[in-house]
Structures are given as structure tokens and as C-alpha cells.
């Protein structure tokens, strides 16, 4: 394959672009071949991950220690569904927020991992999206 | 049919189901035994985790704690559920990527040390046995109260059932049994709750019913009525807290960190196929738990109302039948202090010691006579908090099959947790102690045999604790959380998020955390229980909350010691890099 073929924008399936030949011989726990792994900026991924954790754990601490304990009494002046708000947080609200935090984390990380190419989506799916049709 | 016959049928049917699952899911390899082959669907795992973690105490005692302590008790709800956020964000995905079988295995590999692994095994066994004793006791209590067999017989029957599916099926058997147990226990908990909510408010959703208006035409809401009743009788107002802020914070933190550090919960996330599944699964687990945990406050409020209405200022001779029934089992006692034949329910303990000591004699009105010393309090009633859930079906005048359902649910809650704990004990002994430390050359088949033997021994020890309990159920379980917070959680999190924490730091941290927490708990509960009050507590933190300080101490010691000793070797740092990236988790592998 020559450079000119590339610059013409003609996809040529002559064996060089299709680099899954090698990946298929790797053990099942790594569908990214060595070449891809070295290209991935794992540090950037880790920084993004830590950022997500800081945001979500701050929310978690705010809800549990804040709404649940520290200013729970102050929140009682508002009301929700017949409950004083602070009391509602201690009995139900914090728990609902916790469930929401975990699912937000799941979807947020999924997005970040796809963007950084470190996701663990199924191998079949990878080949489907990767192959020109 | 009588409630007792129905209870036998329901509990018997549920046992038949568990044993059927055990036979269907027999395992042949250590991988299946330890992590169910690593192929459990995240929703299934979430359901199993919920049953794994919701214990006899969750099912029987938490509603009672809340009913008697009102807002103060809610810190337990916040603490126990909040731990799942830590578990999902800080542990589950990374440990799944690590992809081995046990928690001590991670600690041993990350801190490149047999000593660290053995210390982790010791912490794990300590935590698990503390917790399991409460579960076996719970099984015994349910048997004795619903089926009227001796507690000892109940414990032995429970041991036999767990033996079947834990020893035969290992993690695979436990997973699918726990799914069945979750369905049984959630149904058993929700049915009486829905009926009670309708009874008081006409609202069929207990979570909403709690905030609703009463249906008696008084115009008051449930919470206003509760506040009124509690204040009138001199109790703490139901919706107002009395615990100090620092202690509330410490207890919430200790329970959260403890939940995230419980080995039998962590290991459930080793069983899903992928890293992203571990995160998703934690979300499902908490959602399944919250179905029950958001219902608990409603059950607590309605039963407190029920109890006060049907007991206070009611003549003993005209009391509803369930009072006499539960008096016969020793969960209710009445001493007519002022001789008017009417039961007065007031704050404070009615007698000393708190628990009634019954004599064989019956009093003037047919009540059981107690031999305790009387206190100055105007209170004449002793009510065990566990009664709140167990007596609910009768208080709400529900049909007998609901009573039977609650019995089956309580047994399911106790057995599911006991089995999960037995599994982590047996896998730690067989895998971490034998295979990875002392007998590295044994074959897979041999290891599986040892794992099963360890499970048998663990069941026998647990049964012994169930028959000779160290303290009452919920108290014992609270200790397990403190110890998990102070010993296991910090080294795992630091092992993932820091490459600098080394062998010496981690081992010293675990030991300091475990023993300082243990010492504090033992001192205030067993050596000097008379000074177990806020004045004498360190910084005003109760023994239940001390796990927070233990965890902080663990981290401090680990960081300082690691700073002055050599950094971990390069291959360990590479391993940390690897577990931080989700791609390529594969199935849990052997080495």
C-alpha cells in the first residue's frame, strides 16, 4: 500500500489497515492489541476518572453528611410530600440520591471510557463498528 | 389452617427451593466455587448482593430501632446504604479488573507480602464470624417464635440447609439461592407494610403513606400524630433528633466505610463478567436494597402508632390477643406498678435489668409475673424492638398466611447472609491460607476439597456461636461494621489510588486500625459498660461510630510508615496501572 492511496481517501483493504489479524490471536482478556494500548493516553483517562470521583463523592458527602445530618434540622422548614424536608432526607431522600449517584457514575464512566478507548465492550461489537461496510 | 402450620409449610417450601437450587448448581472447579465462574449477570448479581447484605438484623431489628428512636435511628439507614456509593466508586470496578478470587488475595498481591495476606485473612475471619453469629442466632429466634421449636433445634436446621447449598454449590449455589431469598424476603416485608399503610392512610405505597394524612378524619398527618403521641407521653418527639452531631457523623461514616469493607459483599462483585458490569451491578444492588430500606421508616412509624394505641392506657384484660401471645414468648412484659390493671406506656425502662426475668407464676390479671427490680419510671411495659416486624401481621389483623410469609422472609434474610459469610471464610482459608501461602503446590481438586471442608468447619463454629451467642444480634453486627471499616477498607482503597503505599505501611495500618477499634468496643461494652455514655467516650464518639477513627488511624499510620520506607517494586506499580484501566478484564483467571 502506498501513501498516495491514503491521501486519495480510498480505503484499501490490503491487509495493513485491517490490524485485527493479530488481535485475534491474543488471549481473550485483551481485545486491544499492543499497538492500540500504547496509543491510549491512560494518564488522561485516569485524570478524567478522578475528576468524576471528586464530583460524585462530593455530592455523596453533601447528601449524606449534609442533608442527612449537618443541616437536616434547618431543612425541616421546607416540606415535601407531607414530610419536613430534613426528616424526609434522613428517612428516604439520601437513599434515592445514592442510587442515582451510582447510575450516573456508571453512564458517565462508560462515556469517558469509550472516548479514551479503554472500555470493556464486547469484542464482537468492536469489530462490527470498526469494519467498513 | 393455623399460623403455625402455615409457617411450617412456607418455611418448608422455601427450604425445598433452596436445596433444589443447590443440587442444580453443583460445582466442579475452584473458580466456580469462589466466584461462580465469573459469569453472573449484573442484575442477578445485584439481587444476590441485596440478599447477601440484608441480614436477619435488617429484616427484624432495623424497623424496631427506628420505631423506638425516630429520627436518631435514621443515621443507620443513611450509613448502611451510603456505603454502596463508596463500594461502587472506589472498590468494585478495580477489584473486578484485578480479577482474582478473594479480598485478602488483592491485599497480598498489591502489598507483595504473605504477611499482609495473612493479616487480611485474620481481619476477614474476625469480621465474618462476628457477623455470622448474629445470623445463626436470628435463624434460631425465628424458628423458636414462629414454629415454637427450641432455638438450638432451629440453629441446627439452619446449619443443615446452609450446608447443602454452600458446600455443594459454592458461590454459584449461593448466588442463585440468594436471588430466590431476595424475592422471598422482599415480598414478606412489603405485604404487611402495604396493608399497614392502607390501614392508617388508605395509601397503598408505604413510602408515600408515611407522609400522608391519617384516614381517621382527624386531619392530622401520620408524622404529626406520631409527634403528638410521643410528646404527650413524654418520649422524645419522633421527628426530632437528640444524638450529638459529631456522633451522628461518626456513626454514619463508620457504617458507610464498614459496608464498603465487608468482604462477603465485596466478593460478590468478582462474579460479574466485566468491569462496567461491576459498577452497574452495585447500582442494582442498592436499588433492590432501597425497596426495603425506604419501606422500613414507614413500617417503623405505623408500628409505633399501633403499639402505643393498642397498649397505652388499655386494661390488660381487654388487650388484643397478640399482646398475650408475645408475652408468652418473652418479648413483651407488663408489671402493674400502680395497681390499676391498666397498662401505662411511658419513657424509660420499666425494670432493672431491662430484660424481663419471668417467674412461673401468673398475676391477678393473668399476666406473667417478673422478678426484676422495679425502676422509678412510670413505664410499666417492656417491648422488645424485634417485635415491630414480627408482630406486625397480627397487629394489623392480617390473614395467617402473611404471618407465615414473614417467618419465611426472616429465615431467608438470615440464611442468605450466613451463606455469603461462610463462603468468604472458606475461600480465604482454602485459597489464601492454603493455596497461596502454605501449600502452593496443591491441585485445583484438592483446593476445592479444602474449601468445602473449611465451609463445613465454619458452619459448625457459626452454629456454636448461634447457640451460645456473645451478645444480642444487632449489637454484634454493628461491631462487624466497625472492624471492616478500620481494617479492610483503607488498605484496598489506598492500594488502588496510591502507588506509594507499601507493604510495611499497609500491614501496620491494618493492625493498628483493627486493634484500636476492637479495644475501644471491648472496653466500653464488656470491661466498663457502666461508663458507656457520651461523657466518657473519646471525642463523644460511641463504640458504634469508632470505626471511623479506626479507619483514619489506619490511613495515617500507613501513609507515614510508607513515606519512610522503600516504594513498592515496579511490577506492583504496573499492576496498579493495569487495574485502573477497565479494558481487558476477561473472566476471573487462575495463576
List the defining traits of the structure above:
heterodimer, A: 133 residues, mainly alpha, two-stranded antiparallel ribbon, 7 helices, 66% helix, 3% strand, elongated, disordered N terminus, B: 591 residues, 4% strand
Structure commentary:
The complex is a heterodimer of chains A (133) and B (591). The radius of gyration of chain A is 24 Å and the shape is elongated. With 133 residues, chain A is mainly alpha-helical. Chain A has helices at residues 3-7, 20-23, 34-39, 42-70, 72-75, 85-116, 123-130; strands at 79-80, 83-84. Chain B contains 25 helices and eight strands. Chain B has a two-stranded antiparallel ribbon. In chain B, strands 2-8 form a two-stranded antiparallel sheet. In chain B, strand 5 and strand 6 form a beta hairpin. The radius of gyration of chain B is 24 Å and the shape is globular. Classes of the chains: A mainly alpha (133), B mainly alpha (591). The interface between A and B is large, with 49 and 55 residues.
Report the helical percentage of chain A.
Answer: 55-70%
Mean pLDDT of chain A: 71
Q: List unreliable stretches of 5+ residues of chain B.
A: 587-591
Overall geometry of chain B = globular
**Protein structure class of chain B:** mainly alpha
Report the end-to-end length of chain B measured between terminal Cα atoms: 57 Å
The counted number of beta strands of chain B is 8
Helix content of chain B: 55-70%
The share of residues in extended strands of chain A comes to: under 5%
The protein's oligomeric status is: heterodimer
Tally of helical segments of chain B: 25
Total number of helices of chain A: 7
Please write the string of helix (H) and strand (E) elements of chain A.
Answer: HHHHHEEHH
Radius of gyration of chain A: 24 Å
Span of the ends, CA to CA of chain A: 20 Å
> Largest interface here, residues on each chain?
A-B, 49 and 55 residues
Task: Estimate the strand proportion of chain B.
Answer: under 5%
Runs of chain A with pLDDT <50, length 5+? Answer: 1-35, 123-133
Radius of gyration of chain B equals 24 Å
What shape does the CA trace of chain A take?
elongated
Amino acid at each position: 500500500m502506498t501513501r498516495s492511496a491514503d491521501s486519495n481517501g480510498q480505503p484499501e483493504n490490503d491487509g495493513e489497515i485491517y490490524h485485527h489479524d493479530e488481535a485475534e490471536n491474543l488471549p481473550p482478556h485483551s481485545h486491544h492489541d499492543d499497538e492500540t494500548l500504547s496509543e491510549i493516553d491512560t494518564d488522561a483517562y485516569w485524570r478524567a476518572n478522578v475528576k468524576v470521583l471528586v464530583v460524585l463523592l462530593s455530592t455523596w458527602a453533601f447528601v449524606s453528611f449534609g442533608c442527612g445530618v449537618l443541616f437536616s434540622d434547618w431543612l425541616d422548614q421546607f416540606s415535601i410530600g407531607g414530610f419536613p424536608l430534613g426528616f424526609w432526607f434522613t428517612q428516604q431522600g439520601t437513599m434515592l440520591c445514592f442510587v442515582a449517584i451510582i447510575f450516573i457514575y456508571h453512564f458517565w464512566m462508560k462515556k469517558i471510557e469509550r472516548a479514551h478507548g479503554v472500555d470493556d465492550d464486547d469484542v464482537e461489537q468492536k469489530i462490527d463498528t470498526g469494519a467498513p461496510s | 389452617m393455623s399460623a403455625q402450620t402455615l409457617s411450617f409449610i412456607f418455611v418448608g417450601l422455601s427450604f425445598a427451593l433452596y436445596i433444589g437450587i443447590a443440587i442444580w448448581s453443583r460445582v466442579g472447579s475452584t473458580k466456580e466455587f469462589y466466584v461462580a465462574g465469573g459469569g453472573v449477570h449484573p442484575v442477578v448479581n445485584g439481587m444476590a448482593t441485596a440478599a447477601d447484605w440484608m441480614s436477619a438484623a435488617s429484616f427484624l431489628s432495623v424497623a424496631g430501632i427506628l420505631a423506638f428512636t425516630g429520627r436518631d435511628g435514621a443515621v443507620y439507614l443513611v450509613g448502611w446504604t451510603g456505603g454502596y456509593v463508596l463500594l461502587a466508586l472506589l472498590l468494585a470496578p478495580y477489584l473486578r479488573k484485578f480479577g482474582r478470587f478473594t479480598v485478602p488475595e488483592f491485599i497480598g498481591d498489591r502489598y507483595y507480602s504473605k504477611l499482609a495476606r495473612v493479616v487480611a485473612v485474620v481481619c476477614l475471619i474476625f469480621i465474618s464470624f462476628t457477623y455470622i453469629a448474629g445470623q445463626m442466632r436470628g435463624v434460631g429466634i425465628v424458628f423458636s417464635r414462629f414454629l415454637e421449636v427450641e432455638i438450638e433445634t432451629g440453629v441446627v436446621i439452619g446449619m443443615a440447609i446452609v450446608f447443602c447449598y454452600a458446600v455443594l454449590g459454592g458461590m454459584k449455589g449461593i448466588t442463585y439461592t440468594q436471588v430466590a431469598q431476595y424475592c422471598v424476603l422482599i415480598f414478606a416485608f412489603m405485604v404487611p407494610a402495604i396493608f399497614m399503610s392502607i390501614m392508617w392512610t388508605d395509601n397503598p405505597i408505604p413510602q408515600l403513606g408515611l407522609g400522608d394524612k391519617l384516614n381517621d378524619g382527624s386531619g392530622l398527618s401520620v408524622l404529626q400524630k406520631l409527634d403528638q403521641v410521643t410528646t404527650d407521653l413524654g418520649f422524645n418527639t419522633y421527628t426530632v433528633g437528640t444524638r450529638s452531631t459529631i456522633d451522628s457523623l461518626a456513626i454514619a461514616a463508620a457504617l458507610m466505610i464498614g459496608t464498603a469493607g465487608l468482604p462477603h459483599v465485596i466478593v460478590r462483585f468478582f462474579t460479574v463478567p466485566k468491569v462496567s458490569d461491576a459498577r452497574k451491578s452495585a447500582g442494582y444492588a442498592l436499588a433492590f436494597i432501597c425497596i426495603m430500606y425506604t419501606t422500613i421508616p414507614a413500617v417503623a412509624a405505623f408500628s409505633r402508632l399501633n403499639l402505643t394505641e393498642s397498649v397505652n392506657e388499655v386494661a390488660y384484660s381487654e388487650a388484643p390477643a397478640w399482646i398475650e401471645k408475645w408475652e408468652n414468648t418473652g418479648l413483651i412484659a407488663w408489671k402493674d406498678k400502680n395497681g390499676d390493671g391498666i397498662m401505662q406506656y411511658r419513657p424509660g425502662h420499666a425494670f432493672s435489668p431491662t430484660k424481663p426475668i419471668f417467674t412461673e407464676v401468673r398475676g391477678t390479671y393473668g399476666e406473667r409475673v417478673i422478678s426484676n427490680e422495679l425502676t422509678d419510671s412510670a413505664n410499666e411495659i417492656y417491648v422488645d424492638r424485634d417485635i415491630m416486624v414480627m408482630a406486625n401481621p397480627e397487629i394489623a389483623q392480617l390473614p395467617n398466611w402473611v404471618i407465615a410469609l414473614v417467618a419465611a422472609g426472616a429465615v431467608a434474610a438470615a440464611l442468605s447472609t450466613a451463606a455469603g459469610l461462610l463462603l468468604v471464610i472458606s475461600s480465604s482459608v482454602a485459597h489464601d491460607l492454603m493455596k497461596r501461602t502454605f501449600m502452593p503446590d496443591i491441585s485445583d481438586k484438592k483446593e476445592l476439597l479444602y474449601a468445602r471442608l473449611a465451609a463445613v468447619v465454619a458452619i459448625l463454629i457459626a452454629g456454636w456461636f448461634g447457640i451460645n451467642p456473645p451478645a444480642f444480634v444487632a449489637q454484634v453486627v454493628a461491631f462487624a461494621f466497625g472492624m471492616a471499616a478500620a481494617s479492610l477498607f483503607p488498605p484496598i482503597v489506598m492500594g488502588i489510588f496510591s502507588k506509594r503505599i507499601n507493604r510495611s505501611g499497609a500491614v501496620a495500618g491494618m493492625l493498628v486500625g483493627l486493634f484500636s477499634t476492637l479495644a475501644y468496643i471491648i472496653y466500653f461494652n464488656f470491661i466498663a459498660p457502666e461508663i458507656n455514655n457520651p461523657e466518657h467516650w473519646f471525642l463523644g464518639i460511641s463504640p458504634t461510630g469508632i470505626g471511623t477513627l479506626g479507619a483514619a488511624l489506619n490511613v495515617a499510620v500507613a501513609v507515614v510508615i510508607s513515606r519512610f520506607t522503600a516504594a513498592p517494586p515496579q511490577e506492583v506499580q504496573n499492576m496498579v496501572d493495569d487495574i485502573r484501566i477497565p479494558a481487558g478484564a476477561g473472566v476471573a483467571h487462575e495463576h
